[in-house]
Amino acid sequence: MKKKTILVTGGGGFIGSHLCERLLKENYDVICVDNFYTGSKNNIRHLLSHPDFELIRHDITLPLVAEVDAIFNLACPASPVHYQNDPIHTTKTCVVGAINMLGLALRLRIPILQSSTSEVYGDPTIHPQREEYWGNVNCIGPRSCYDEGKRCAETLFFDYHRQCGVDIKVVRIFNTYGPRMLPNDGRVVSNFIVQALRGEDITIYGDGQQTRSFCYIDDMIEALLRMMRQGPEVHGPFNLGNPAEFTMLELADLIIRLTGSKSRKVFKPLPADDPVKRRPDISRAQQTLHWQPQIGLEEGLKKTIAYFDGVL
Ligand code: NAD
Ligand code: UDP
What are the angstrom distances between the C-alpha of 126 and each of 62, 136, 275, 281? Predict the structure, then answer.
């Protein structure tokens, strides 16, 4: 039987590179598409010599022609620092990128998975967040390029499904961390670990009482594969994440303990529109995908710290 070819946009990024690696292990042909805006060739250097791996440097805001059997659409900067750096291009990546990839899926009649985000809930007024919740999003703030871009991408996915019958799979990813985040990524887990290992001040934004729920990368990859393997009647959206919830102060203290660092915690202004609380209700994913995270925060942080220790 012919091997299936999977297209991963954003395959040079943090989640994308782990997904490419896993797909190759499962004996798929993999085409990785990336413009390396936030990704790095180093993330996939070890895959470049693999006979079933191909890399295309390409920006998904431009049309792409390829013959593939499924698409994981992951291309988009995910760290607030980076997606706010060129907000117009962030919205274009979310919206025009989605139109281009959905057009390809429609032409080829293949399934396409969209990596949406917990940010579609904005600064949520219900807790934990369930998929039925419509969210509380500022449409003109510094996070809007990403939040509204991802919301519009979801709209496009569901309209391509309803209007044209495209087999869509939409997942809303909550904060995910692990090896291959870049040291300058700007997100909280990598920032705190890099600061702790370098003995620099740990930068807590605001009072540190805001919460997030952190999912280890291996758990997320498993969920993405399970979602793609669902039949055409399953579209989501499904929340994917680890429901264990921590304040940023708790996260900082845990990282200080695990690294044995002498770093001090310092307090910096809270960025605009920073969500106060975040925790996924993952019942839908549990029921349909028979999935739940297996790796707790301490175990995942130890692996991530070991990675950064090697890199720095
Ligand atoms: P990342 O920044 O490490 O990876 C994104 C990749 O997309 C990078 O390699 C980047 O160069 C590439 N890219 C960006 N714009 C592109 C474009 N226009 N054309 C082609 N490639 C482009 O981020 P990540 O954490 O791996 O996130 C992957 C996906 O998952 C993103 O869509 C993100 O929105 C989503 N997501 C991630 C998280 C998380 O906590 N990691 C949470 C929610 C959603
Ligand atoms: N944060 C922090 N210090 C940092 C980076 C982030 O206190 O050095 C906080 C940030 O204000 C937010 C949380 O950590 O409340 C998670 O931020 P991140 O950028 O990782 O992701 P978000 O969930 O906000 O997209």
Answer: 37, 9, 12, 11
d(CA 155, CA 173): 16
Tens digits of per-residue pLDDT, 260-311?
Answer: 999 999 999 999 999 999 999 999 999 999 999 999 999 999 999 999 999 9
Mean pLDDT of 6-23: 98
Pairing of β 29-34 and β 202-205: unpaired
- Count the alpha carbons within 13 Å of 245 in the hemisphere toward its beta carbon: 13
Please give the structure tokens belonging to residue 222.
Answer: 């498993």
The domains found in the chain, sorted by start residue, are 5-179+217-241+280-293 (3.40.50.720)
CB 204 within 8 A of CB 196: no
**From the candidates 37, 83, 121, 146, which is the catalytic residue?**
146
With beta carbons less than 8 A apart as the criterion, state whether 224 and 215 touch. Answer: no
pLDDT tens digits for 200-257?
A: 999 999 999 999 999 999 999 999 999 999 999 999 999 999 999 999 999 999 999 9
The alpha carbon dihedral of 40, 187, 90, 76 has a sign of positive
Is a pLDDT exceeding 70 seen at residue 9? yes
Atom of ligand 1 nearest to the CA of 79: 2
Atom 18 of ligand 2, nearest CA residue: 187
Question: Chain-centre distance of CA 303, in angstroms?
Answer: 18
Q: What is the pLDDT of residue 151?
A: 98
Amino acid at 16: G
Is the CB of 97 inside a 6 Å radius of any atom of ligand 1?
A: yes
Distance 183 CA to ligand 2 centre (A): 14
Q: pLDDT-based confidence at 2, cuts 50/70/90?
A: confident
CB proximity list for 251: less than 8 A, separation 6 or greater: 188, 189, 192, 212, 214, 297
